[in-house]
Design goal:
With about 325 residues, the chain is an alpha/beta fold. About 25% of the residues lie in helices and about 25% in strands. The structure holds NADP nicotinamide-adenine-dinucleotide phosphate.
Length: about 325
């Protein structure tokens, strides 16, 4: 009988995530019922938020011990009991960390593949759309303004910085290592990059932002947000995209000093968002954004930065490593 390789979250992590939180299992192949579709996972997205889901309910339900690890995937239809899908179709599906999954047809979104399939996880997928809507709808940068972005060499951050450059902004990235900082300035056209693990981070940030910061795209929260707040210009905008620095722990730190005091004195707007809210009721805004991003890629104006690894069994290590800053660009697993 055909089997389904799965990675189960065996236990919720206490403290930092380690490989023993996961267990590789073989289960019977699921069979689709009426109106259902059997899909095979092609690409599994590895997201910083995967760890946040283990901390409790977020914009989605909390993960529990014993369940197949949740994860966003691009999958291929294997068998369909719904007239809307046929074998070979590529769909967006929450398959989780497993080879095969069955879904009601209504839970699948068809993908019209253009170019590399992986681009639909990175620049044309949720990652690129998060950068696009977060920066343009929430940050609203003007040409000539300074945009600061954290986790700048990561999946979301590198796209934010590149879009900000396309909008005529001065762009400063924050990343952990000298190598990542060099990549941002030498390969992606950032104007400056600052290493957040340097003990003089605040001094380096000040030197890199002589005219202050108008838009801070915050992927990490914590100390980097604390430092950025003091560099904000009057009427600046802080785009709260995520809080990576507080994900890999059972004891997240409170928000930084300066909230709300600096928001008042500098007249700042600090606003969170969830990307799906910006797709529009009929997905039209998403389609338009995807078209724009694809145009920039085709014109060579937006570089696609991807970090793929092979084999479902490597998903736990891929996530643990991402949380420690081991990725460059969009990380995903090719599930074969
Ligand atoms: N709001 C939304 O709708 C939405 C949608 C998608 C993603 N997100 C958010 O976007 C952010 C980026 O997620 P991603 O999946 O694209 O991951 P990513 O940026 O590719 O990877 C996470 C990065 O976080 C950095 N990092 C880890 N610990 C840190 C710390 N203590 N301080 C500073 N930086 C740290 C690491 O880069 P360094 O090596 O540079 O430290 C690492 O590469 C997350 O906050 C995620 O929750 C939000």
């Amino acid at each position: 009988m055909a089997t389904n390789q799965q990675i189960v979250l065996a236990a919720l992590p206490q403290g930092r995530l380690t490989a023993d939180a996961f267990q590789l299992l073989e289960s019977p192949m699921p069979a689709p019922g009426a109106g259902e579709v059997l899909t095979r996972t092609r690409l599994l997205s590895i997201d910083a938020a995967n760890r946040a889901w283990m901390q409790g309910a977020t914009y989605r339900g909390a993960l529990g011990a014993g369940q197949v690890m949740d994860g966003f995937t691009l999958a291929e239809v294997v068998k369909s009991n719904d007239p809307g899908f046929a074998p070979g179709d590529i769909v967006e599906a929450d398959n989780g960390w497993q080879q095969f999954a069955v879904h009601p047809a209504g839970r699948l979104t068809r993908v019209t593949v253009r170019g590399e399939l992986s681009h639909h996880l990175s620049v044309l997928g949720v990652t690129g759309l998060t950068a696009y809507f977060g920066l343009l709808d929430i940050g609203r940068p003007e040409p000539g303004e300074t945009v600061l972005v954290s986790a700048a060499a990561g999946a979301t951050g590198n796209v934010v910085g590149q879009i900000a450059k396309l909008h005529g902004c001065r762009v400063v990235g924050v990343a952990s290592s000298a190598d990542k900082c060099a990549f941002l300035t030498e390969q992606l056209g950032f104007d400056a990059a600052v290493p957040h693990r340097d003990e003089n981070f605040r001094g380096l940030l000040k030197a890199a932002t002589p005219d202050g910061v108008d838009v801070y795209f915050d992927n990490v929260g914590g100390d980097v947000l604390g430092a950025a707040l003091w560099r904000m210009n009057q009427h600046g905008r802080i785009v709260c995209c995520g809080v990576v620095s507080q994900y890999d722990t059972s004891d997240p730190a409170p928000g930084p000093r300066g909230v709300p005091g600096l928001l008042v004195t500098k007249r700042l707007r600090m606003e969170g968002f969830i990307v799906m809210d910006h797709f529009g009721p009929d997905g039209a805004a998403r389609a338009k954004a995807e078209e724009t991003l694809a145009g920039w890629v085709a014109a060579g104006q937006l570089r696609v930065v991807e970090d793929g690894v092979d084999g479902l069994e490597r998903a736990p290590a891929a996530l643990i490593d991402l949380l420690a800053g081991g990725n460059l660009g969009k990380r995903f697993v090719r599930v074969t």
